[in-house]
Amino acid sequence: MESYEVVIYGATPGGIGAALGAARQGRRTLLLEPTDHLGGMLTSGLGRTDILSLEASGAVFREFAGRVHAYYRDRYGEESAQVQDCNNGLFFEPSVAQHILQEMTGKETLLHIQLCAELKGVRVEGTQLLAIRVQTDAGEQELVGNVFVDGTYEGDLAAMAGVPYRLGRESREEWNEEYAGRLYMNFDESKEVYPGSTGEGDDRIQAYNYRLCLTRNRDNFIACTRPPGYNRDEYALLATDVAEQRIKSIGDVLNMLAVPNGKTDSNNHHYCMCSTDLPEENTAYADGDRRTRELFAKRQKEYIQGLLWFIQHDEELPEDFRKDAQSWGYAADEFTAYDYFPPQLYVREARRIQGEYTFTENDARLAPGLGRAPIQLDSIAIGDYPIDSHAVKKREPEGQNKALEGFLGLNWLSEIYQIPYGVIVPQAIDGLLVPVAVSASHMGFGTLRMEPCWMQLGFAAGIAADLAITRNTDVRLVPVDALQISLLDREQRITYFEDVAWDHPARQAAEYLGTKGFFTAYAAGLDDPMPLSEASRLIAWARSLPGCRSLPVLPATDNLIPVGTDMGPRLPLEEAGPREYWRERPLLTGAMAANWIQVALRGLGLSAREDPLIELSRESSITRGTFVSKLYELIREVQQM
Q: Before 164, cis peptide (omega within 30)?
């Protein structure tokens, strides 16, 4: 029996994020992976990262993207095509992603990685997960941990430990989600919804596939081959689509997106009725045993190989169509240990745990009355990708061929959103965090299920595990404010602002206060003068924080006469009335900010400050960024007491 402080099962980007977070906090960390492959989809063909902007990422994923950019810059030069094609590190070749993740994990002396370690059992006492059993080449062993993290796409550890979970799709009514349940949607710009869209829930799961790395470079080219058991009938309707000009080239069958060095991230094509997805047949995968999953993965691989063979060689297709398709082959320098085919099945969705919070479609839309998505008080990361789902049914009989059922993309509807801690904290079982198979409806999962998002949620899980161990408490009881501050210290993003640069000195303070409802839109205006009304509201809110119970009522003005000074002769009515006084003085002055912060310090039992408050008091007006930064400093001190 071996003991670690943090044990992670599943070396996906989410699992790797958790491992890096825990190990960098000084925790003895074990990362287990049931296969021989490190990195999940990030190193298995998904080279066009599903995130709209680097500004919506932080911590380890931002570091990963930065390292990718540096790799291409150092190898090919700043002005090279490779640097341009990598899009600030968001687009990359699978082998480069593999190199970067191995580099990042290899630097951590407290992190041990064990591949080919399959979960066989768990030990739970009451509600506490205490240990797991894994099978490796060396035999079966029990591993004890203070905190466990499930980093698998399937939620295998959570399910085995007894965490309740969801499968399939909820109805439109269950979570009040406009596009939930049975849906036929045109994927083009119109987003037209077709008849038959009833909104009914079911047990269907969106389709899986593999993300292929193809190339036209004949110096780095492996021809596609006919797979065993090739069945032409599965693809025959494509010939009709080509004849009727609905499909005009291989680019209409595969969605081929460029990554550096003339390679692609080739995905299922949204508009093709017969592409690389294989709906319906993956239904048993999520809850299936190892044999069930292996059989489906083999079936999915051979189906895609058969599709490639068909569009390159079937004589019913026009010769020019076939020749164009034949110009594409596997990249000879990718997946060399796996016969040039990606090793990781793209499990877009499987089990979804039932957690302390369920993320839904409405959490990624504008909130009523706000200019942003809903405020999450316990936000630990942000997401920036439209809700989407791949099909849950195959091509249906003639008359319903406008759209595949379940295929949707809500790019006009989704906003950048906050992700609450509760989605990774499972119900029923303690000592476990689940940053990949998170708590969400099918629709909510449709945006959370992106690798950059999972990697950042994993990192948050690693930091939360460290705090739980430090405070000798369970992960569900970790103080959220302490977790948020710790994440911000490590460059995690927990609130998005469209007008705040990454290096703005008040960014972290604004992101923290953005989780408390202080900012109601995506603009923070940190360089604008601070209104008194906002400052007063912030100080009043701060009084409700843990440790702030003794904070006294705020002084009423910014022109307090020093103690010992004779106030008379003066009648109170000679002064402007309170309403007129504040109406005439709508902005916070430096003197008032210094006085208020001193009052807050004393109320919190913290020592009074001379510097930098003296300098602050000399300012004729205070920006919003300056004030929130000073308040954030107080909050940090309270959380560390």
A: no
**Non-local CB neighbours of 81 within 8 Å, separated by 6+ positions:** 260
For residue range 374-425, what is the model confidence (pLDDT) as tens digits?
A: 999 999 999 999 999 999 999 987 645 689 999 999 999 999 999 999 999 9
Percent of the chain with pLDDT over 70: 89
Query: Can you give the length of the chain in residues?
Result: 641
Output the CA–CA distances (angstroms, integers) from residue 511 to 3, 486, 516, 527, in the order listed: 37, 13, 9, 15
Q: CA of 490: how far to CAs of 455, 459, 509, in Å?
A: 14, 10, 13
Alpha helices in 196-336 (DSSP H): 236-243, 290-313, 319-326
What's 247's DSSP letter? -
Exposed e or buried b for every residue in 6-37, given b needs 16+ CB within 10 A? bbbbbbbbbbbbbbbbbbbbebbbbbbbbeeb
Can you list the pairs that 196-202 forms with residues at least 24 positions away whose Cβ atoms lie under 8 Å? Answer: 196/400, 196/405, 199/171, 199/172, 199/173, 200/171, 200/172, 201/168, 201/169, 201/170, 201/171, 201/174, 202/168, 202/169, 202/392
pLDDT grade, residue 537 (50/70/90)? confident
Helix (H) / strand (E) containing 84: helix 81-85
Distances, alpha carbon 331 to alpha carbons 66, 260, 339, 583, in Å: 25, 12, 10, 69
Please say whether the beta carbons of 28 and 143 come within 8 A: no
Q: What is the pLDDT of residues 252-306, one digit of tens each?
A: 999 999 999 999 999 999 999 999 999 999 999 999 999 999 999 999 999 999 9
- Give the pTM: 0.93
On whether the CB atoms of residues 11 and 30 are closer than 8 A, the answer is no
The Cβ of residue 195 has, within 10 Å, a number of other Cβ atoms equal to 8
Count the helices and strands in the chain (H runs, E runs).
Answer: 17, 18
Residue 56 and residue 493 in contact, taking contact as beta carbons nearer than 8 Å: yes
Residue appearing with tokens 């291409």: 72
Of 5, 14, 9, 12, the closest CA to residue 438 belongs to 14
Cis before residue 569, ω within 30 degrees of 0?
A: yes
Question: Any residues with CB less than 8 A from the CB of 173 and at least 6 apart, and which?
Answer: 199
Which residues on adjacent β-strands are paired with residue 202?
169
